[in-house]
Design a protein that fits this description.
Blueprint lengths: L2 H12 L4 E2 L10 E4 L14 E7 L9 E5 L5 E5 L3 E3 L2 H14 L4 H4 L6 E2 L8 E2 L2 E2 L10 H18 L1
Parallel strand pairs: 3-9
Antiparallel strand pairs: 1-6, 2-3, 2-6, 3-4, 4-5, 7-8
Helix pairs in contact: 1-2
């Protein structure tokens, strides 16, 4: 990635958009920035990524498991993580960078074209964008319990 591309990524990262909380808020190919990317020392060129698949409740503590594509085409898995959305004013320019470097354009990854993913350590090849939880709705994962507690506390504050 050249200096101009890195500067655009840095600008978009510094001026990040809103937080996406639920899997259903994401659209296939959304450009996002993982909360922990900078803290974990992820290189700038990997801090902006495209969401290509969400597997519900199979991540750490029952969190959603995200597969994302970087500008140079590699896939990365994130779990127990939330994302900022890249602001719309940067999307077209960043898409141009992706189309220049990424060997697999977003249209090639489009769900419905029988494209799926396998991630390191898991031999299961899964097709689609939002993959339903393998658990029944009444199964409580640690992440579900935490979300319920947070919602209950917010409701108490609202009602007081």
């Amino acid at each position: 990635m050249n200096k101009k591309d890195l500067e655009l990524f840095q600008k978009a990262i510094k001026d990040k958009g809103g937080i996406l909380l639920q899997a259903e808020e994401y659209k296939y190919g959304d450009l996002v920035i993982p909360f922990a990317a900078e803290i974990l020392g992820v290189p700038v060129e990997e801090q902006i990524c495209r969401v290509v698949q969400i597997r519900k409740e199979i991540g750490a503590f029952g969190s959603d498991f995200f597969l994302v594509r970087h500008a140079e085409g590699s896939l990365r898995a994130w779990e127990n993580q939330r994302f900022y959305k890249v602001k719309e004013k940067y999307v077209d320019q960043i898409e141009t960078i992706y189309n220049r470097y990424d060997a697999i354009e977003i249209d090639d990854d489009e769900p419905g074209k029988n494209v799926g993913y396998r991630y390191p350590g898991d031999d299961e090849f899964i097709k689609g964008f939002i993959i339903p939880s393998p658990y029944s709705e009444d199964h409580i994962t640690p992440m579900k319990a935490l979300h319920t507690q947070i919602k209950d506390e917010i409701q108490k504050i609202i009602n007081s």
